[in-house]
Amino acid sequence: MTDPLFPGATIGILGGGQLGRMLALAAARLGLRTHVFDPVADGPAQQVCDAATIAAYDDAEALAAFGAAVDVITYEFENIPTAALDILEGLRPVHPGRKALAVSQDRLTEKQFLNQLGLVTAPFHDVAGPDDLTAALAAVGAPAILKTRRFGYDGKGQARIMADGDAQAALDSLKGAPAILEGFVDFSHEVSVIGARGLDGSVACFDPGENLHEDGILRTTTVPARLTPSQRTDAVLLAARILNALDYVGVMGVELFVTKAGLVVNEIAPRVHNSGHWTQNACTVDQFEQHIRAVAGWPLGDGARHADAVMENLIGDDADRWLALAGETGTAVHLYGKAEARTGRKMGHVNRVTPLR
Amino acid sequence: MTDPLFPGATIGILGGGQLGRMLALAAARLGLRTHVFDPVADGPAQQVCDAATIAAYDDAEALAAFGAAVDVITYEFENIPTAALDILEGLRPVHPGRKALAVSQDRLTEKQFLNQLGLVTAPFHDVAGPDDLTAALAAVGAPAILKTRRFGYDGKGQARIMADGDAQAALDSLKGAPAILEGFVDFSHEVSVIGARGLDGSVACFDPGENLHEDGILRTTTVPARLTPSQRTDAVLLAARILNALDYVGVMGVELFVTKAGLVVNEIAPRVHNSGHWTQNACTVDQFEQHIRAVAGWPLGDGARHADAVMENLIGDDADRWLALAGETGTAVHLYGKAEARTGRKMGHVNRVTPLR
């Protein structure tokens, strides 16, 4: 696909969660239709899309019908099964592409890729099996974190090793999954850059945001982040280098640790990112529209920000505060249409904005 | 209904056009579901709503099922048939209410209501039948405009009478529909106030916008409008007076002529309004979310504006410029998902914003 999609065309979205929902709403603003593929019915995205396929990711027939029904395919999560991709790629363009998925699906591959680009990551060592942990600890040192190579998110699939004696318990908790051992990074705070690359190779980044996590889950993102002007420039250039190296199309989240020695890349996510939700109320073109523009072959927005912003996630019971939050001046409430407020579940977020004057 | 609707509740929307579409998108941001009722399938709103009923407005069974399936009912157009309202009001709250509809459905009732409130309108005279036109012309004088009392929009159902000799042709063009004759108002420009009133009686207005029409159709709205500080205050107070008098719940558009003698009310629309589309990219809570908040019993947004804005309608072939418009910096493109770009058809709009700094 080299021509932009016309209004009325259909974007296929793999995944029916809140990111898919907000992508679908952004597509609708641009007159584009959406077709959501997800194994579970009545998810956040299906409530707002034009068409939905409820099927498993290994249902070849459903995938083929979905591919035939859409004009381009994107996704809200990076753990797309390879076999599903094989089918879909044969039918329609998939953005972001295979290289970005391969790199971001696997913590080992990701870190190797970033190091090859000349970017700094946490020290790490492959832990292919139980026998490798001793060598890994010797190389990386304790304290460290054992992380599964694949399928980790929001702090899941991770175990801390504060001293060598914790090693066996950490290994046990990962149940034999291939892992890497990551050394600790002495950082003052975490920031993220939400970058986008268009089909024409143009790159646009939003201003970096500063992230605060609790229990492994993003709690708030504050913009502007505490960064020196040169750190800010570094952060954006670094994101652009990753986007270009992957021949990327779409929005990417790049999480960075700020250290005395410079910026350290924590991880990349080949999709719209929770730390970019602030753009909805502080930018003319937000991260969701930016992603849709990119995968549709449209020109990117410029990423300019008209307000300072603090995004706060509403997790579990937090969402019970919806009425009080809706009554706050200068606060935009975003809720995801999820019925059940389970502990740790992202139910919505608010953006508190202060216009730049 | 006095309690606010909980997230997950369903807003029923009568009408599946672009206003319904943008209402549905705003409701989705707040975690509310939408169910659209319209006689025609695959309209702009149906592409983004959670459920749709395709049925005629005189289909009592479909109306009853729709009413039973939703928690509150609103609409995107004022010409709801009375019989449909009779059914729906018996089932669920309908906002804005009957009084607002009765007043705004009929140009004669509307002007009488406004005059009783002490507000200035164009001079007018009832033209119940052909025999009344002579008396009306004598009272109002030529030039004047003969308008059908009901079902007029975007300049339809109107005929100019520049001199007495035009009277018969004007009458013929209205095909015997009950009408009023309106005198010309000597105005410098038109502005509109988009006001909202909550279920608790609170009122919030957006800054007035200045409207430019071409061929009877809104072409652009520019904010801020050219108004003196006292005119601006008058405009907002006047809108609030109308909202309160109607015990109104929801967003209303109030069109005003600016004259040397003060503000003259042109007409009111009991719904979100084309001249309020600029709020989408210049306010934290836009007119669509404001309307949803009102009918759901949520607190209103404050109407604050963080940017100057020019809204331009994309009418008919204008929408062919979508790619160039998407490439403009500081411009937000909104397209309605309509397949066919007929002459005079509103296909979308753009908001060009300049942040206040």
TrEMBL record, chains A, B:
**Keyword match Oxidoreductase:** no
Q: Which InterPro entries match?
A: ATP-grasp, ATP-grasp_carboxylate-amine, ATP_grasp_subdomain_1, D-isomer_DH_CS1, PreATP-grasp_dom_sf, PurK, PurK_C, PurT/PurK_preATP-grasp
Q: What is its EC number?
A: 6.3.4.18
Q: What class of enzyme is it?
A: ligase
- Positions of ATP binding: 107, 147, 152-158, 182-185, 190, 213, 266-267
The UniProt family comment states: Belongs to the PurK/PurT family.
Record protein name field: N5-carboxyaminoimidazole ribonucleotide synthase
Name of the gene: purK
